[in-house]
Amino acid sequence: MSEPVDVVLIGGGIMSATLGTLLHQLQPDWKIVVCERLSEVALESSNAWNNAGTGHAALCELNYMPAGPDGEVDPAKAVAINEQFQQSRQLWTSWIEQGILDEPSTFINAVPHMTFVQGEKDVAYLKKRYEALKGQPLFAGIEYSEDSRVINQWAPLLMQQRRKGEPFAATRVPAGTDVDFGALTRQLFAHLESEGVDVVTNREVRGLKKQADGTWKVSHRNSLGKTPGSFSARFVFVGAGGWALKLLQKSGIAEIGGYGVFPIGGQFLKTTNPAIVAQHQAKVYSQASVGAPPMSVPHLDTRVVDGQASLLFGPFATFSPKFLKQGRITDIVAQVRPGNLWPMTKVAIDNPSLITYLVGELLKNHAKKVDSLRTFMPTAKDEDWELIQAGQRAQVMKKDADKGGVLQFGTEVVTAADGSIAGLLGASPGASTAASIMLNLLKTCFPDRIEGWKQPLTTLIPSYGETLNTDPPLAAASVTRTAQALAINA
User: Fold this and answer.
1) What is the pLDDT of residues 292-321, one digit of tens each?
2) CA-to-CA distance for 173 and 282, rounded, in angstroms?
């Protein structure tokens, strides 16, 4: 076997692209190889039409700030999510200034983030949420209104033919964004290839085995000709979406024991009708249905992909046993191990409302889905909207000392004790917070090098090691700088 490579990145999505670009800048002498099983990078979760493109900053997503049992709200998680997105903005800004990324409008555009709720209970909640956030430096500029005339100015489609006497309220942050993570991912990999990094497509990693010398044997095959091969690597990152669980299980690391994933697909209603698109310039989120997972919070979004604006509404949950959109129907069964059987069973027992929700979603036809849209847009017509299939999300199931097993939302990095291999499980807000996730991975997996990397990391991300929200002048300066550089001034 040839000399080991320094880093192998499995999966051609935004996570591998971000980590690869960071490592190449920090250690330009390292040999990095990227393995993607499909014919191109960014075809799964990072693809523009496989996600909603929300630059998740907790400006409008209510699931990051739920009401407690006493009805009170805690802004801590929302602030933390926003901090993480600010790191992504700073990193993208530096990469634009260095010529690594193209013109900002090729991957990010200003789109206000709104929340819209109906009914006395949700109106009261939203007002509490607004009161808790308006004094937070990273949420400066958030607006609140229960006035139909104001909300009509913000998003006319929400208010046309709205029934009078119905309580409703909205918040708005003009500085929200829409992000094409597919374009962003492709640009980063194109840069890496221009720098000599091997980005190999149609290469499916089939096995990972720790060797006596501490390196990993990475077994693979050509996705087309099925030709097998292998090489060794000093560090492996598994950023393969839902397949990360399968590969980490094959690695045999103890840390993956007890983990399972539950695949949930999605569909969106989409329109490109210019007369409709022109009336809505916002991403508008609301409350999730009872039993629905947080990733299924309904929202009516402006999308900008390849320079063309459209509107999406959804998501509507679908079910497939595949862990990826282009996965295998055996995925959901093949993950079962003695260590995760009980946690997964316990999750099924404890979440009957999720099963009820999924069944209800699967029974909805096109007309019923447009009916759901009319909750947001009373004037919606069936013929203006088409259904598109979004990506697969693999929600994490894991052991829990008290409950036996829990369904966990968000993302989680699983790392071997020696830091030689790590993988990412979970879904939203992953892509938006890729910078923060990868910075934490660098600390965990390269503890002997992180101190030496501190200066270049601070150059790339000026707030590295600091907290913006506790320093209002620093927060304002950071937001202003990145807004100007990314051309997202609202």
Assistant:
1) 666 678 999 999 999 899 999 999 988 888
2) 9
